Amino acid sequence: MKTAKFGFGTYRVNNKNEEHYKSMYKALLGGVRLIDTSSNYYHGQSEILTGQVISDLISENKISRADITLVTKGGYIQGEMYNEAREKKNSGTPFPDVVEYSGGLWHCIHPDFLKKQIDIQLNRLFPNTKGRYIDVYLLHNPEYFLGWAFNSNNVISDTDIKTEFYSRIRKAFEFLEEKVRSGAIRYYGISSNTFPLSSAKSDFVSLERVIDIADKISSDNHFKYIEFPFNLIESEAFFEKNQHSNSKTLLELATKKKIKTLINRPFNCITNKGIMRLADYLTDGYISDDLKKRIIYTANLEDEFRDEILPASDMGTEDIRKIQKIIDIAVRLSEHWSKFGSIEYFNDVVENYFIPRINFLKDYFSDSSIPANVEKSFNNYIHCIRILLDNIGDYYKTIANEKNSFINDILNSMYDSEYGSLSLSQKALLLIRSVDGVDYVLTGARKEKYIEEILRIQNDFASNRIGNYSKILKRIKEQMVKENISKAEL
């Protein structure tokens, strides 16, 4: 069996971040040739970034359009599209078959919506006119309909709900076949979190039934790809027999039917004990009492700077009020420091909430003529904030390493010695890539150093496969029972 390839996942990247641009650029130059994005990732900014990077590399003659397999998805109604969908509903011309899942989040796979969505996506992905086609278009988590329907107060029977669900899939597939004929897309498929689950689950999506729908539309159909989660903890795609009267697993059926598989979340495992990210975190640890003292000290320093030093300065009243409103970093951290759940979520909050505030304050005070005592106090305050963020980061890194310890122990005991220098992330990638039926492993690498880790596996271990992956996955599954760890219900 051949080893799977790597793809660049764009779930958390956007065109406003220069580092994200550099990471994708580096990945494509390094030989990663598949990009997986979606209409709703950062409300379209991930698609815009993807278009920018591909366009730049092509214009620099470093790659050609034919080198890239571009995967994107549609179905979510969020952000600007949500506002438009609401306006259409209020005006009496709604998109058909909209699933009003929650406030700010609707879902739709009706052809009328997909047509609108694909037109927008083509403009995002191709700022220039050349190579204007999507290689693979996926219906993005269509099981939202099932979750909504089974939890709604209605009189529709379970059988009718399933019948309606697959009828909607059929209409979408017929439309996507038209898009293939027009040249807008080349292949299509489904990205679903519930493909690997037990067939008894109400929101389970059956690959078997989906294939049957595509075959009835055309024996020469273009349904060729599926995407789903698979990692060392959430390993149902390999173990759960949920196809053909529960006689085959998802990976077995996909292999038999020559459906290409895209694996997402190879690192982020969603469990009953929170997210477990399969990564090693360098930290000197933390001391609980010291962290709490640091939080109190920094919060007091913030109060003093905001409520005493600023008002006593000769800065304008309006400027003081403006700055005071965003000097809330320490107080926010004191309220929530232990509630972020995981190092990944904490890092996201730091990147998207705290860092923009810090940068705004630094820019303001660097561009303004302020008294020396105010500047000194501000610099001390920012210094202490950064130390506090690092300390809280160490807290979550320590927790993450503790959660991952049994995974590390199993891999170290069952891997050959040649893999001893690899990180936990690299070992996890190597194993998932080795599993029969896996075609692409998608990695969300927002930093260049992460790309370097991936490229090492791709280049230095190009043909290496973990031959005993089945035993390793089984051993991890057994240890999960002992550790009282299970897959979280989404």
Tell me which CATH architecture of the largest domain applies here: Alpha-Beta Barrel
Note the gap between the termini: 33 Å
Strand order within the widest beta sheet:
1-2-3-7-8-9-12-15
Number of helices: 17
Helix content: 40-55%
CATH superfamily of the largest domain: NADP-dependent oxidoreductase domain
| Domain module count | 2
Oligomer: single chain
Task: Give the biggest beta sheet.
Answer: 8 strands, parallel, barrel
- Given as residue ranges, the uncertain stretches (5+ residues, pLDDT < 50) are none
Jot down its keywords.
15 strands; alpha/beta; 2 domains; TIM Barrel; 3-stranded antiparallel β-sheet; 490 residues; 17 helices; single chain; 8-stranded parallel beta barrel; globular
Give a verbal description of the structure.
By secondary structure, the chain is an alpha/beta fold. It folds into two domains: 5-277, Alpha-Beta Barrel (TIM Barrel); 288-400. Helices cover 53% and strands 13% of the residues. It has 17 helices and 15 strands. It has an eight-stranded parallel barrel, surrounded by five helices. Strand 1 (5-9), helix 1 (18-29) and strand 2 (34-36) form a beta-alpha-beta unit. It is globular and about 75 Å long. The two termini are 33 Å apart. The mean pLDDT is 93.
